[in-house]
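Folding Query — how this chain folds
Tokens — whole-number codes for backbone shape
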Amino acid sequence: MVDAVSSLTHFKQPLLKTPFHERARELSQVDSFIPWAGYTTVDVFTTADQEYFAIRNATTLFDLTPMVKYRITGVDAESYLNRLVTRDIGKLKQDRVMYCVWCNDAGHIIDDGTVFRLGRQEFRLCTAQRQIDWLLESAVGFDVELSEVTEQIAALAVQGPTSCATLKAFGLQGIELIKPFETRHFTVEGMNIMASRTGFTGDLGYELWMDPQHAEQIWDRLMQAGNSRGIRAIGSQALNIARIEAGFLSPNVDFVSSEHTIRLGRDRSPLELGLSWLVDFNKGHFNGRRALLQEQRRGLARQLVGLDIDGNKPAVNSLLYLDKAGNREIGSVTSAIWSPTCKRNIALAMVEAPYFRLGTSLWTEIYLNRELVWERRMVQARVVEKPFFAPARRRATPPADC
């Protein structure tokens, strides 16, 4: 039942607050909050640089509660998901997680996310954007029940090289035995926690899923357990730097959902986004299969690639050219940063065929604002492999006890 008072006053503060909001507000030094899936979340607590280096050298906490979560149950739950996504859900064992994408009939991506198998006929689908309309339309003919459970589950991403040691000190005994994309259930002082070895940083890390009523107590205990290991709360700016180094895609940045595009030719297929490894043509029919097979046969017109760019000025929103004079436009940058760990100027970019092949040289058009005066530079770049940063500790089981 919806609280009558809150429903009448919600228009005054339309964004929801996560169960960790008060703890985040206490630590915020710059009062920088942004909306995410109907919630207000921290963009940066102190500086993005400080928070980024905590990801790569210590333990970090990121409020993952706004991640949209769907519960999918029923005798046809597996068959339904297998029709929905491009990977073979039949291969997903209980207490395992699988990264997936799903497409429309034209083979263009609607969204990406993670699928958790919680039981033989129970799954959880997590995605950054709300997708209930498409999920319900796709469920026609299947004996399944779908419900959004976002507000019923609080979540924290615990990431960084000392994250495992922090979680052991917190009380999750045996956490070091969880392999990548596995889950395990724990009980600490009567609080039930599901831990998954997943994350968006490309580093060693875990995600904790819990009852919202225990959120603040778990936050406080984690801060205490990680005090000697440099634990720090981080916002989305620092996370964005880490995910680009890891070569991870961000919706509405590196691609736009085909459900939201207005202009023709702006939607993308998983093959164009370099996600062909997520498409299993051998599992039987799924949404977009025919279109993706046709695209595979005729060859790609464009592809998302990694770029290594000369200099140290990020090529944010830059156009790409075949020559220095800028006579032939061949693509554009979707994400770009100076990588503090790799000491490289890196980017993700959509490039036309045949120029997306590894080793191809091209030119980026970078604009710099120098005291309110804009400067234009043409800088050389090369198509390189992704990810840009992939430490061995990310997959080590057990991880080093830092």
